[in-house]
Amino acid sequence: METTSSPLLQVDGVTLAFGGVKALTGVGFGVQPGSITAVIGPNGAGKTSLFNTISGFYKPASGAIRFKGEDITRVPAPQRAKMGLGRSFQNIALFRGMTVLDNIKLGRHAHLKTNVLDALLYIGRARREEAALRRDVEERIIDFLEIDHIRHAPVSALSYGLQKRVEMARALAMQPQILMLDEPVAGMNREETEDMARFILDVREEWGVTVLMVEHDMGMVMDLSDHVVVLNFGQVIAQGTPAEVQADPEVIRAYLGAGDVGDLRAKLQRAA
Amino acid sequence: MANFDWAYLFEISLTGIAGGGLYALAALAFVMVYKATRVVNIAIGEMLMAGAYLFFTFASMFALPLWLAIPAAVLGAGLLGAVIERTMIRPLLGEPPISVFMVTVGLASVLVGLVEMIWTADQRRLPDFMPTKPIMIGDAFLAPKVFWGAMIAVVFIAAVLLVFRFWRGGVALRATASDQAAAYSVGINVPRVFSLAWVASGMLAAISGIIVGSIGGISSSMGVFGLSVLVVVIVGGLDSVLGALIGGLLIGLIEALAGAYLGGEYKLLATFIVLVAVLLVRPYGLFGTHEIERL
């Protein structure tokens, strides 16, 4: 699905350095609206650094991040969340000690507009917002992600796979335009992976949310993605459709090192 | 021991619990900052003192009426909290906890120094604003200042609990305390939450300071009250609101009992023995989270 419309998110020549170590060098790619775009690459290639730069945790040394055509390179992270960049984390970042529902509700935090007095008296806008929020949360996200049965469970008591799902639910509650998923199926078994893959596809189909993900599971990336960006040592070494990327000798070299190119190609194709 | 004076024990216990209410309020001020920012604020007693001196300034020096002087002092202390956070704590974001801890140690000295420079080291009396009619509960007598001080503390503790349960700023604070990265990612302005925690802490400390000062007078050494507050929060668990409340009552009770039956010089000894005992059994305090242990 290579389209020519202007990208929803544009990463332009982003360079990120920690002291003398360059985590990203001149990284550039676009995320088309309505697409599922995946960033892949070997461990330490800079995928999570790239994610953190896009969501505003890291400030790039040079280059720009554009969202809906607007330069957001200097916009602080919470503001970006409000603008419509929802994300999950590689090492699950949930509010422990709170329930699943509380976590999901916090996803709506950015959109709430109540002051202390309202909240104390629980009147007017607070009540209406609360009601709208509850409908939104309960009827859509919880049903959609099939987490109804654990609604009131404390998140710390849940399995890894379910925690990942709750994290996705919280990101969805923000009603993002781009859902950024950092390794959504890492550490999951086959069945959980398939569930998550289905959710990712449905998020795009039913909710019209653009997805940008970092993932190691090659099979899933090749199945789901419209556009694949391959990072190695902080640089984009290839990008294009899954088929194009799979055939790219640079990519094969990055994954295999030198030699045995045919073997890896076979492996990649089997996976896809 | 044949005719043990139960009425006396009851009276002492009541006084202890009432005093514990004050510890609980001050401990709440400490826990708020620790929960949100993981800063151990050793200067909590000195912030109490600063609040009390602000009240003294507004009420005695500017001769403002009480209904104006108290809110002015509390707001001033909130401002002080904001300034401390902005100028001393935020620049240290990401530094090792011990550095920040040392800064609060320094802050305690700075506050004492400022108070001595501005108001001298002399003991002062705060204007009386609480009813002076003796309080009788059954046959037990309770000093009116202690009783009303405890009542004020209870009201403010309840208000704080409500506000932080239902107001979104409070929810943001709890979320930030739980996971900073996640808080950022859902659009919570984490630095602003840090400021909020310090402002709220400064205001609560000021209220405790005004009450403590009205009971025992104020001086540049009243920060030692903070020592007992630290015992309270360590016993209760540094990040536990419930721990602050129960720990406050417990320490207040133990201090009063030790003071009455063993003598005033045993007060601190008794509380520190309790501290050691609690830490031996529960290193994270009675209600503190065991997060570090589990990970």
Question: Could you explain how this protein is built, in words?
Answer:
The complex is a heterodimer of chains A (about 270) and B (about 300). With about 270 residues, chain A is α/β, with parallel strands linked by helices. Chain A folds into two domains: about 1-85 and about 210-270, Rossmann fold; about 85-175, P-loop containing nucleotide triphosphate hydrolases (Rossmann fold). Chain A is about 40% helix and about 20% strand. Chain A has eleven helices and ten strands. Chain A has helices at about 45-55, 75-85, 100-105, 115-120, 125-145, 160-175, 190-205, 220-225, 240-245, 250-255, 260-270; strands at about 10-20, 20-30, 35-40, 60-65, 70, 85, 180, 210-215, 225-230, 235-240. In chain A, the strands form two sheets. Chain A has a six-stranded mixed sheet, with helices on both faces. In chain A, strands 2-1-4-5 form a four-stranded antiparallel sheet, covered by helices on one side. In chain A, strand 7, helix 7 (about 190-205) and strand 8 form a beta-alpha-beta unit. In chain A, helix 3 (about 100-105) runs parallel beside helix 6. Chain B has one domain (about 10-225). Chain B has about 300 residues and is mainly alpha-helical. In chain B, helix 1 (about 5-35) packs across helix 9 (about 225-235) and helix 2 crosses helix 9 (about 225-235). Helices cover about 75% and strands about 0% of the residues of chain B. The longest helix of chain B has about 30 residues, at about 5-35. The termini of chain B are far apart. Chain B is globular. The model of chain B has no long low-confidence stretch (mean pLDDT about 90). Chain B contains twelve helices and two strands, in the order ααααββαααααααα. Classes of the chains: A alpha/beta (about 270), B mainly alpha (about 300).
* Dominant shape of chain A: globular
Q: Greatest chain-chain interface?
A: A-B, 31 and 24 residues
Strand order of the largest sheet of chain B: 1-2
* Beta-strand residue fraction of chain B: under 5%
- Rg of chain A (CA only): 19 Å
